Every structure is written in C-alpha cells, then in structure tokens.
Amino acid sequence: MQLDVEHTLERRWISLARIAGWIRAVVLGGTLFLGAVVAVVATRPGFAGAVTLVSSALAAFVLLAALGHFWPEAAWKRASWRLGEGGLEIRRGVLFRTVTFVPRSRVQHTDVSQGPLERQFRLATLVVHTAGTLHASVDLPGLSRETAVEIRDLLVAGNRGDAV
Amino acid sequence: MPSDGAYLRLHPVSLVFQLGAVLRRLVGPLIFVLLFARPERIDVWIALVFAPWAILGTIVRYMTFRYRLDPEELVVRRGLLRRNERHIPYARVQNVDLAQNLFMRMLGVAEVRIQTASGAEAEGVFKVLSSEAIETMRARVGRGKGRDEDAPARAEVLAELPLGERILFGLLSNRGMVVVAAAFGLLMQATGWEPGKGEPPIDPALFAGTSLLVALAVVLLFVIGVRVLSVGYALVAFHDFSLTLADEDLRTTRGLLTRISATIPRHRIQMLSIRETPLHRLLGRVSVRVESAGGAAGDREREGRRREDWLVPLMRAEDLPKLLRAIEPELDVEGLEWKPVHPSAARRLVVRRSFLFSVPGLALSALTGFAPAGWILFALVVGYAALTGYLHARALAWAEAPGRIAARGGWWTRTTSLTRHAKIQAVESRATPFDRRWGTATVAVDTAGAQRFEHRIRIPYLEDGLATALRAKLSVAAESAEFRW
Known about the structure:
By secondary structure, chain A is α+β, with helices and mostly antiparallel strands. Chain A is 51% helix and 24% strand. Chain A has helices at 12-43, 46-77, 116-121, 145-157, and strands at 6-8, 80-83, 87-92, 97-103, 109-113, 123-129, 137-144.
C-alpha cells in the first residue's frame, strides 16, 4: 500500500449504511407506531387525536427512513483516511467535521471487526486503541477486510519501540 | 526474615481490617434501616442473606493470601478456587503507596499498594502489613531499582500546608457540600421521604408565616455551616500535608485520622492543571492538580480512599514558578506567550449562551405567569448568560512551549493546563456548522487518565489555517516524542 495517499471508504459501504439505516428506521418507527396505537387504544382521544398520534409516528418513520437513505452518501463523501509515516489520519463528519490523527507510536492494539452486515458486503471496521481517554478507540469503517488488515500490519510493523 | 524463601502472610490483624471493611458496608446501613425503615424493604433482607458469604469470602481470601520477597521480585499467591501466582520484578515497581487509618496507626500497620507501569489497578495490594514488613519491602524495591539500600533518598520538600493555609483551603473549597448531601440522603432513607412523595419530615406549613428576612438568615446559616464543615474536612484530611520530590518521584503525604502517602513518578504526569477562582486571585493563591495514569487509573474511590490527584491544594501564587521549576525543569512558565482565540469567539459565545439560557429563563417567567417580575427574571438570566459568555471568551487562550502545549479557559475558575507532546495520545480538529460559517475550528488533544468533567487541552475558535497548522504540528510532535508510561 502506498503511504500518504488519501483514500476514501469503499463505495459499497453506502449500501451497507443504507440498509442499516432502513433497519433502524423500521425498528424505531415500528416501535413508535405501536406506541401510538397503544396510546390511541388506551386513552381514546377521539378521531382528531388518533390521527395526530398515528400520523406523527408515521412522520417519524418517514424522517428516519429518509435519513437512513440519504445520509450515508453524504457521510461517504466526507469520509477519508490516510496512512502516513507518522500515523493514521481519519476525516469524518457531515455536520461535525473532524480530523483525527493517531500517531503510530501511540497505537496500543488494533481490532479488525466485521458485523453480520459487513460480512455480506466484504467490509470491515478497523478499531485502533490508544492509551487516551476520549480517543481510547478510534473507528474506521467501510474498509475491505484486506485493506483493514494491511493498515493494521503497517501500523504495528513500524512500532518496534516497546517503551514501557 | 523475608528472604529465606518462605511465604509470608499478611499481619494477623489484617483479618480484622478486611472484615471491618466488609462489615462497615453491611452493618452500618443495616442497623440504620432496621431501626428506621419499614419491613417491606426487601433489599435489606437480601443484604442479610449475602452478608455471611461476604464474611466467609474475606476469611478465605486472608487465609490464602501469601507473599514472598525474593531477591529480584515480589511474589504474591492468592486464591482458593482460582489460584494465582503473581511475580512483580522490583525494577518494574513504580510506586509503593501507603494508607493508614487511625486504628492501623495505633497498631503500627498500614495498607500497601504496589503499582507497576502496566496501567491497570495496583498490582499488589497488602491490607495490612506491619511497619517492619513495609520498610523491608520499600528497601527491597529501592534496591531492585538500583538505589542504594541504606542511602537516604535526596528529598526536597516542595510544598506544605500550614494551619492557616489549611483553613483557607477549607473555606475556598466545597467539601462541606458532600457532607450535607450525604446527610440529606440519610434523612431521605430514614423517613422514606423523597421530594414529591410521602410525608416530609418537617411540616411545610410551619414555614408559611416566616418572613423573607428569617428565610435569608436560614440560608446564610446554611452556607456558613457548609463552610465550617469544609474547614473541618480540610483540617483533618490535609493535616501535615507535604509534597516532596525524591529522585524522580513526587510524593504527597497527608491526613490526621487516615494517613495517606501516595507517589507519582514525574514521568507519569500526563497533564498539569493550575486553578484559580476569583477568590483565589484575590488572596494571591492557586491550586495545582495533576492527571497521572499507568497506576490506579480506574481506581477512583477504593474503600473511601481517593486517588491522589491534588498535587498542591493551595499555595501562594508567587511560589508557583519555583514549584514548576522543580517538577518541570525545562519549562519556563512565565515566558509562555498566551495567544487569544479568534475575535468572533466573544460574539458567538454570547449568542449561544443567551439562546441556551433563554429556555430556563422563559420557564422561570412562565412560573410567575409572565408577570413583569417574570420578565425581569428572564432578562436577568439572559443577561447573566451573555455576560458570562463574554468573560468566557475573553479567558480562552493557548500557548506553545518547547515540547509542550498549553490551554487556558474558564470565566469563574480559570484553569491553565499543560501537557507534554510526549503525553499526547491523539490529536483531533473539529468544525461545527457554526465553525464553518465563521472559518474556525477546535483543536483538542487526548491524554491518558483524563477525568471526565475536568479541564482538557481543547482550543476552540481557532482560525482555520491556524487550526490545521497546529494540528499538523502537534501530530508530528506527538509521533516523534516517545511515549513512556
């Protein structure tokens, strides 16, 4: 792998994030809808009240679904990573744009993890652990498994100073 | 003597202290609740069921705990079902910390906690050891670290807290509130009263007729009472306080009833914070705090003993440079060039705070039914928000020094924090949508052992180019400065 090159996340991550977003929308929206139905049955607020409750639950669902569908693309466009001599730099965030840098020598250990959805998409998340507190673990999703492993190996390989 | 290869047990009286700790947790609340509470409090009965097991467990732990002081390392054996043998090379031992309560002092024993660089909790906890055993252990550890067994360590007293200073510290701090809160909690438990539920212990109708003056007097008495408690706490907890520097270790000792001795190796200091409130400034005092890690990091309160993070609770501002020179010799604190943040910070903070505080302000005026008095309240609240926002923006500053980064902030409690590049774990820059509109960003640095709600090296409202440059500079500096626990 070339160092000091800005990489984007894998494109298929967008589909993955979309599916996750839809699942979330269905689960949350479904719960809200059920809650609205229960509220209508329990309190019997009359036609207007029932319509308000149910339609607000539906509106919430639509909002969540829209977010789940359109957000990942924006997030993908704003996400990139770069592995350099000094360490790993990760840029993320649509509204709150962050650039996080973990120096090579501060990497304590790394995880390459894959959830069930990620496995379907042949994607993985690299989690880099430091001795810090707010950045005790730094996530980098949307990587192919091979890339994640490559970054991990490169991060650790340069790390021969066992300073204790 | 310890070196003959036989395993040693803890001092016999340890069982008493260990059981005591367990029983204290059970018996105190138990008696209290039995006397005062209703029998349907099932959690009491559950606690009673577990009590014998806890006691049995403590006895078993005492019986199975053994240690040995080998030439090169400390060996500790524990456990009945799961047996554990731990070897701690003396060369790896960072601290030997002591805690001694009144009874322990009377009996000449102390609780010893041995810490290595491994960043977890104390690796060896000995509750309790006799003073001879402690001395032997300390000598062995010292020898293992290459120090001469009998040579006195070069120790320099950096700070002390004479009586007047202790009283002042008590007056300036808020420990009294902790006692009040605890008493309140006890009261609620005893009478089954919670705000909004049940019968209040004192009939509120009693207060219906009292005048404003009396109410104010009561509040004043309360405040004074809290301060008196604070002073009492300070007098006891910081009795005979001293901060010494011996070789590479900072050691604090303090306490009247419970004597605590804690060591922080200098290189374990992750961040140093200097604090002053307006009262402090008025009196020409500051307080110094450190965050250290690679020790009892998760160990905040263990059986009532706080992890030491006060370096000096109170000292004269003019003595500060001398203290800092001793701890961080390469740093020139007075020579720091403090740079302000972006000029738009004041405007933004004022607007943001006014918005935030307008909500409770509106709520308050709603309580009065939106009467003129209510709107005055609203104006006061928002005015307070705006003013403090402005002051806050004015107080924000940052500075660079060779090998270090410093940040300052806080409109009431002004905190100045410094960290070395070698202690930086990660660097982050962050831009909110507002930041983007104004062309600024925040640069923050992550360190080990940072406390949740304490000051951090976080510099907001930095102009974009400056923020990027600073982030890059800190990233390079952090990578090239080796991190050592």
